[in-house]
Design the sequence.
């Protein structure tokens, strides 16, 4: 590589360069060190620039969907935006799933796509697709660059929009002639976006009204979500302070796990469809609900008309369109979680009349009674590995390490959320809103590239993992020693569970015949395969996995017919949960009444 | 549990919609840039909402701002949600639900005007009658031959609909309408 090129790039002053150079320079100026991508005709000029520099590390994946999820994993575990680079046409259409995934889970993701030259747009050129048209509803914003003069501004705007306010995916579609064209490049400071300025500070009067409600609460609950994680590590610290000061019980959505430690005294476990009994009943019976960076998703609320009927609701969210979307709230606070919590703590400290000590004792006694129901219990077995047991052991053997967990989607995901204890934010990467099977393996690759020395485990299912298994090849190429821990029950377990509940146990196409031999598959990719089917051998096998400095596929054969409980069945409210010890065949069969069944 | 006995259920909780849909007029101030209209109307079509009328034009050339006027019918809850989604879109500067503002200020409706071109073909008595009615509606003749008139008519939506309905039996052959331009009464801007 010519040295002059390298030294030129270090400075980021205004100067003339090609569109492809601008892309690399804009990445550097926006703090990007890693890009996940796949080359193709319409991005070759950019790949040529990547070849001639060493500031931005490019991770070659095996499918564009993998690049997107890897960038999401990178983003979620670092708090920085993830970047993916793909070609036009099929490259862009393969990016649609991770874009929508990032939109639903508020992950900052910058997707750069090549496009056919401007003169050919609309001519059905080779590998042409209307990328901005296709991705308009699955991005926060997208741009088709039509002139080289616009390129630097749009690239900087893309990073701004992806990371400011409620984070999300953006896409910049760059025609090939623009990549070759020459123009003036200016650094990010040169531009200011006039029309997108999210509000960070919450309205003081609203925060004061919230604190007043909280002070008077006798049965309060904090219901927190991914917004706390997105707001940054400070938000999690402030949340912990707020819990310590108020003594409130706290539960979290799937996306918010780790913001408050699972070992914390006030932790009730996750809430929602597969949440704990105590979390859901506390939500149902509370008198004041403080929703912090969560969005009243349908997996959380259950039947809306029976959702927490007697509570005053406070909702902190940076996105005004999340307020009153599903549930009417009494005190909306539009702002960034960390900003609002800081102000809330100050107002709480300044309260003239603090609630008396012990004011929440009756509420906690009630919660302890619900807790004693032990809603996460399961029947242990000496002969087969129970999936819950597998997660418990995985947690026990990895909790003292620098561990990051990703998941696919299904029963294994819910068991991971229930049985793996998350102590810190940014340690848990899962596809919550979109429910994308195939997310976890590439996400683990992205996490590992950001944290080379960490233990990164994809808790997977046998069906999900096959959707993006090709990224094993990428993991081997980039020496990313990710661990793919498959809870293998040979079923699409969650699909089967719903078929048992809702479709008269007619198990239509949810059994996977002809699964691959996962050990041989790992070896075929150049990784290491481990298989375990006996509870007594599980600990040693997990230790073997942890000690292996290479990508590992762990085929953990678990009880085939285990189902995921507790559960709020369809058409039911939080206080009508199905508990594991009640989940007999008949109870499962009649869990959903006639009215529930009519819901289409 | 025996197979085949149960009816199918659902993985979603669905509550019945109890709110009544109502027609709203929204004004949206946006950057005049490619794709902005698709972005705005996508929020309606994505929810299966029909746009009854749509008017777009640049209103500030120096600032490259366009004003979009949308007439759509929906429940207050969903239209509030669409308004919030519009507000957070990057090229959108301002969104006002003119119907709600009129409600707040105690006006019946926002001021609305529409222009229509109406072509009526025919001879004899019908032709005379069409001309007489056009006068009553203060429609202008902007093109004519011995076999047709083309009228330009401006006014509220109800007036234009009425005019078109009256022209129907008199030889109406073509109609083109601009869609509604709207703002609220009083000295304040949107």
Sequence:
């Amino acid at each position: 590589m010519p040295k002059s090129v390298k030294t030129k790039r270090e400075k980021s002053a205004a100067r003339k360069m090609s569109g492809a150079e601008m892309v690399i320079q804009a990445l550097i100026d926006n703090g990007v060190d890693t890009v996940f991508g796949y080359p193709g005709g319409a991005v070759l000029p950019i790949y040529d620039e990547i070849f001639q520099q060493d500031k931005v590390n490019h991770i070659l994946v095996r499918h564009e969907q993998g690049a997107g999820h890897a960038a999401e994993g990178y983003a979620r575990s670092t708090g920085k935006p993830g970047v993916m680079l793909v070609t036009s046409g099929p490259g862009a259409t393969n990016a649609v799933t991770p874009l929508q995934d990032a939109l639903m889970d508020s992950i900052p993701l910058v997707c750069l796509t090549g496009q056919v030259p401007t003169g050919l747009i609309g001519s059905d050129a080779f590998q042409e697709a209307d990328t901005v048209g296709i991705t308009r509803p699955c991005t926060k914003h997208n741009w088709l660059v039509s002139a080289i003069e616009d390129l630097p501004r749009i690239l900087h705007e893309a990073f701004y929009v992806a990371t400011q306010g409620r984070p999300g995916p953006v896409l910049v579609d760059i025609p090939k002639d623009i990549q070759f064209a020459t123009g003036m490049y200016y650094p990010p400071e040169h531009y200011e976006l006039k029309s997108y300025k999210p509000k960070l500070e919450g309205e003081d009067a609203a925060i004061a009204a919230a604190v007043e409600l909280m002070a008077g609460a006798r049965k309060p609950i904090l219901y927190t979500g991914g917004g706390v994680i997105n707001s940054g590590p400070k938000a999690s610290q402030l949340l912990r302070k707020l819990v310590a000061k108020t003594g409130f019980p706290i539960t979290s959505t799937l996306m918010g796990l780790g913001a408050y430690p699972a070992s914390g005294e006030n932790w009730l476990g996750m809430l929602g469809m597969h949440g704990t009994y105590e979390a859901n009943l506390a939500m149902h019976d509370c008198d004041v609900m403080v929703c912090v960076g969560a969005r009243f998703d349908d997996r959380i609320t259950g039947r809306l008309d029976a959702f927490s009927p007697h509570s005053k609701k406070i909702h902190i969210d940076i996105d005004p369109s999340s307020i009153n979307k599903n549930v009417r709230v009494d005190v909306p606070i539009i702002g960034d979680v960390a900003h609002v919590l800081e102000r809330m703590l100050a107002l709480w400290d300044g309260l003239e009349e603090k609630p008396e000590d012990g004011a929440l004792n009756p509420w906690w006694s009630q919660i302890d009674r619900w807790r004693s129901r032990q809603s996460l219990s399961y029947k242990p077995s000496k002969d087969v590995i129970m999936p819950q047991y597998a997660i418990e052991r995985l947690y026990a053997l990895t909790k003292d390490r620098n561990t990051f967990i990703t998941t696919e989607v299904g029963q294994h995901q819910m068991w991971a959320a229930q049985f793996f204890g998350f102590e810190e934010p940014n340690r848990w990467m899962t596809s919550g809103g979109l429910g994308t099977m195939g997310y976890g393996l590439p996400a683990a690759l992205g996490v590992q590239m950001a944290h080379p020395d960490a233990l990164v485990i994809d808790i997977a299912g046998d069906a999900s993992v096959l959707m993006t298994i090709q990224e094993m090849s990428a993991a081997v190429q980039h020496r990313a020693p990710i661990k793919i821990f498959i809870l293998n029950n040979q079923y699409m377990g969650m699909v089967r569970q719903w078929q048992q509940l809702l479709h008269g146990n007619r198990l239509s196409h949810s059994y996977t015949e002809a699964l691959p031999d996962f050990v041989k598959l790992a070896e075929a990719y150049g990784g290491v395969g481990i298989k375990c089917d006996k509870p007594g051998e599980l600990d040693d096998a997990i230790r073997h996995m942890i000690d292996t400095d290479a990508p590992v596929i762990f085929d953990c054969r678990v009880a085939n017919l285990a189902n995921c409980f507790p559960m709020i069945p369809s058409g039911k409210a939080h206080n009508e949960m199905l508990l594991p010890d009640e989940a007999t065949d008949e109870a499962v069969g009649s869990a959903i009444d006639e009215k529930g069944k009519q819901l289409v | 549990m025996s197979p085949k006995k149960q009816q199918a259920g659902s993985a979603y909780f669905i509550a019945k919609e109890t709110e009544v849909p109502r027609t709203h007029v929204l004004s949206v101030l946006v950057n005049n840039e490619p794709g902005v209209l698709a972005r705005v109307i996508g929020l309606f079509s994505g929810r299966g909402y029909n746009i009854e009328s749509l008017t777009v034009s640049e209103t500030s050339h120096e600032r490259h701002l366009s004003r979009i006027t949308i007439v759509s019918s929906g429940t207050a809850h969903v239209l509030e949600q669409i308004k919030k989604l519009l507000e957070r879109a990057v090229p959108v500067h301002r969104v006002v639900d003119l119907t709600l503002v009129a409600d707040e200020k105690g006006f019946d409706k926002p001021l609305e005007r529409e222009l229509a071109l109406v072509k009526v073909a025919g001879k004899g008595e019908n032709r005379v009658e069409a001309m007489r009615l056009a006068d009553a509606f203060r429609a202008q003749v902007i093109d004519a031959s011995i076999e047709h008139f083309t009228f330009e008519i401006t006014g509220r939506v109800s007036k234009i609909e009425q005019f078109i309905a009256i022209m129907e039996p008199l030889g109406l052959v073509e109609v083109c309408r601009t869609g509604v331009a709207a703002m609220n009464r009083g000295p304040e801007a949107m």
Remarks:
- The radius of gyration of chain B is 22 Å.
- Strands of chain B lie at 22-31, 51-60, 65-74, 92-97, 111-121, 140-145, 148-155, 172-177, 181-183.
- The first strand of chain B starts at residue 22 and ends at 31.
- Chain B touches chain A through 34 residues (CB under 8 Å).
